[in-house]
Amino acid sequence: MLLEVIFYAFASVLICASLGVILFKNPVYSAVSLILAFITTGLLWLLLEAEFLAIVLVLVYVGAVMVLFLFVIMMLNIHAEEERSGFTNIAPIAIFLGLVVAAELIALYWIQSDQFSGLESISNSALSVDNTLLLGTELFTKYILSFEIAGFILLLAIIVSISLTLRARKNVKKQVARDQISADPKQRLRMVDIKRGLD
Amino acid sequence: MTFHIIGSILPEVTIAIAICVVILVNSLIRSVSAAFIHSMILFFLSVALFLSFVSLEIPNSNIFNGHYVIDSFGTNLKIIALIASILVHLASLKSKNNIKNEIFLIQLFATLGVLILCSAHNLLTVYLGLETLTLSMYGMVASNRNSIEATESAMKFFILGAIASAIFLYGLSIVYGVTGTLSLELIKESNLLDGLEMRIAVAFIACGVIFKFGAFPFHSWVPDSYQGSNTTAAIYISSVPKIGAFALISRLFLDSLNVMSEFWSILILSAGLLSIIIGNLIALMQINLRRMLAYSAIGHIGFVLLSFSIVNDGGISASMTYLLMYILMTISAFALIESISSEDHQHIELSDLKGLNNSHPLIAFMLLFCMFSMVGIPPFIGFYAKWIVLSELVNNGMLWFAIVGIIMSVIAAYYYLRVVWFMYFEKTDQPIENKGMMNTHSITSIFVSVMLLLIGLYPNPIIDYTRIIISSFLLID
Amino acid sequence: MMLEYSLIALLSPLFGGIMAAFLGKSFGKNFVNFVTIIGVSISFVLSCIIALEILESSAVINQNIYTWLNIGDQSFHIGLLIDNLTASMMVVVTFVSLMVHVYTIGYMYDDPGYHRFFSYISLFTFSMLSLVMSNNFLQLFFGWEAVGVMSYLLIGFWYTKESAIKANLKAFIVNRVGDLSLILGIGIIFSITGSLDYYAVFSNSQEIAQTELLLTSTLTVSALTAACILLFGGAMGKSAQMPLHVWLPDSMEGPTPISALIHAATMVTAGVFLLARMSPLFELSTTALSFVLIIGATTALFTGILGLIQNDIKRVVAYSTLSQLGYMVAAAGVSAYSASLFHLMTHAFFKALLFLAAGSVIVALHHEQDIRKMGGLKNKLPITYVTSLIGSLALIGFPGFSGFFSKDALIEAIGHADIIGSGFAYASVLIGVFITALYTFRLFFTVFHGALDEHHHDVKESPLSITLPLVLLAIPSVIIAWPTVGPMVFGSYFTTAISQPDAYQIFGYEFTSAYGFLIHAFSSPVIYIALFGVATAYILYIQKPSILHDETYKSSFIYRLLDNKYYFDDLYENVFAKQARNIGDLLWKVGDIKTIDNFIVNGTAYRIGNIANRIKGIQTGYIYHYALMMILGLAIFLAWTILDLGGAS
Amino acid sequence: MLTLQSYLTLSAIIFSIGITGIVINRKNIIIVMMCTELLLISVNFNFIAFSHFLQDLSGQVFVFFILTVAAAEAAIGLAILVALYRNKKSISVGELNKLRN
Amino acid sequence: MILDLMIWAPIISGLIILMIGKNYGSLSYSLSIFSSSLVFVISLYALSMYDSSQTGIQFELITSWIERFDINYHLGVDGISFPLILLTTFITPIVLLTSRTSEKSNLHQYLASFLILEGLMIGVFSALDAFLFYVFWEAMLIPMFIIIGIWGGKNRVYATIKFFLYTFLGSVFMLIAIIYLYIQTGSYSIFDFYNIDLSRTEQILIFLAFLFAFAVKIPMWPVHTWLPDAHVEAPTGGSVILAAILLKMGGYGLLRFSLPITPNASSELSMVMVVLSLIAIIYIGMVALSQTDMKKLIAYSSVAHMGFVTLGTFVVFLDHEIASLEIMNLAISGAMIQMISHGLISGALFLCIGVMYDRVHSREIDDYGGVALMMPRFAGLMVFFALANAALPGTSGFVGEVLVILASLKVNFWIALLSGTTLVIGAAYTLWMIKRVIFGDVTNEKINDIQDVSAIELIPLMILAIMVLAMGVYPEPLMNLMYVSINDLSKLVFLGAGI
Question: Which residues in chain D touch residue A157, judged by CB atoms under 8 angstroms apart?
Answer without folding.
Answer: 71-73, 75-76
